[in-house]
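Is this the right way to post C-alpha cells for a design question? Let me know if I should format differently. Anyway, here goes:
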C-alpha cells in the first residue's frame, strides 16, 4: 500500500481524466480501444514515476506539513533510495510501453519531458523559490493531452489531418485551470506552506489579491474551452458554456466574500474546480464518441 500511496493515486485519476477526451477527440467518431487502454496504462506509469520522484525531492517539507505528514517517505514507510529506484523504473517502463506497444515514440518523449519538468523544474526549482511555482510548474499536468494526441495521430492512416491546434487548446485549458485550482487549496493550507517555507501565492499575498487572481484565471480557463467549440458538436458547446458559467460564478463569490470580510471556504472552490474540469471533459468525450457534426460544419452548411 505504501508504494501505491507513493504514486499519488488521486492525482493520477485527474491526469487520466485529462487524457481521455484527447484520445477521443483526436479521431472523432472512432474509439481506438486498444490504443486508449495502452495510453492510459503508459500514462499511469509515467505519472506514477513523476509523483514518486516528487516525493523523494519533497521529503523534507512533507514531514513539516500536516497535509503531507502521512505520506510514505514522511512517515518512513519506504526509504528514499527505494522510492527513487521505484520512480525511475516506472519512468523507463512508461516510455518503453508507449514507444513499443502504443507505437508512439513522440508520446514517449512527451512522458520524459513531463517527468523531468515536474521533478526538476517544478519540484526542485520553482516550488521553493517563487510564488509563480504552480503557474509555470502546472505545465507538467497538461502534458497528458499531448501524450494522448501523439498516440492517436501516430497511428492514423497516412494523410489524415492531425489537428494539433486542438491539443494545444486542451493543454491551455488545463494550464490556466491549474492556478485557481491549486491556489484555492493553498488558501486552506496556507499555514502549512508557510511552516515549510514554500512561497505559495496565499503565503506571500493577501487573500483579496489571491482571489482576484483566481477569478482572472477562471475566466481565461473558460474562454480557452470556448476556443474548441468550432471543432466539437453541440453537446460540448453546451457543457463548456454551462459548466463555465458555474465555475465563474463560484470564483466571483469567493472573491466577493473575501472583499466583504466574511468567512470563506476556499476548499469548496477547489472541489468545484475538479468537478468543473471533469464536466467539461466528459461533455467533450461524449461529443467525440458520438462523432456529432461540429459547430464549424453546421455554420458552413447554412
Amino acid at each position: 500500500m505504501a508504494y501505491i500511496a507513493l504514486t499519488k493515486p488521486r492525482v493520477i485519476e485527474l491526469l487520466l481524466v485529462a487524457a481521455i477526451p484527447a484520445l477521443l477527440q483526436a479521431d472523432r467518431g472512432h474509439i481506438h480501444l486498444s490504443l486508449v487502454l495502452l495510453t492510459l496504462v503508459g500514462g499511469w506509469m509515467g505519472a506514477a514515476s513523476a509523483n514518486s520522484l516528487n516525493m523523494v525531492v519533497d521529503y523534507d517539507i512533507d514531514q513539516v506539513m500536516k497535509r503531507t505528514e502521512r505520506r510514505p517517505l514522511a512517515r518512513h514507510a519506504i526509504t528514499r533510495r527505494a522510492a527513487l529506484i521505484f520512480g525511475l523504473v516506472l519512468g523507463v517502463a512508461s516510455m518503453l510501453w508507449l514507444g513499443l506497444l502504443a507505437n508512439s515514440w513522440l508520446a514517449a518523449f512527451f512522458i520524459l519531458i513531463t517527468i523531468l519538468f515536474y521533478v526538476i523544474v517544478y519540484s526542485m526549482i520553482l516550488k521553493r523559490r517563487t510564488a509563480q511555482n504552480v503557474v509555470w510548474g502546472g505545465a507538467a499536468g497538461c502534458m497528458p493531452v499531448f501524450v494522448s494526441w501523439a498516440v492517436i495521430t501516430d497511428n492514423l492512416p497516412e494523410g489524415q489531418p492531425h489537428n494539433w491546434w486542438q491539443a494545444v487548446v486542451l493543454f491551455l485549458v488545463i494550464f490556466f485551470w491549474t492556478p485557481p485550482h491549486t491556489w484555492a487549496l493553498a488558501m486552506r493550507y496556507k499555514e502549512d506552506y508557510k511552516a515549510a517555507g514554500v512561497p505559495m501565492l496565499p503565503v506571500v499575498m493577501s487573500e483579496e489579491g489571491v482571489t482576484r487572481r483566481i477569478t482572472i484565471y477562471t475566466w481565461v480557463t473558460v474562454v480557452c474551452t470556448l476556443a474548441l467549440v468550432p471543432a466539437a458538436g453541440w453537446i460540448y458547446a453546451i457543457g463548456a458554456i454551462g459548466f463555465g458559467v458555474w465555475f465563474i460564478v463560484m470564483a466571483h463569490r469567493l472573491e466577493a466574500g473575501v472583499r466583504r470580510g466574511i468567512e470563506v471556504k476556499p476548499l469548496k472552490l477547489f472541489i468545484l474546480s475538479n468537478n468543473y474540469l471533469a464536466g467539461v471533459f466528459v461533455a467533450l468525450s461524449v461529443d467525440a464518441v458520438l462523432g456529432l457534426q461540429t459547430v464549424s460544419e453546421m455554420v458552413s452548411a447554412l
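Format looks fine. Someone answered above. Worth noting: The mean pLDDT is 92. The CA atoms of residues 161 and 245 lie 32 Å apart.
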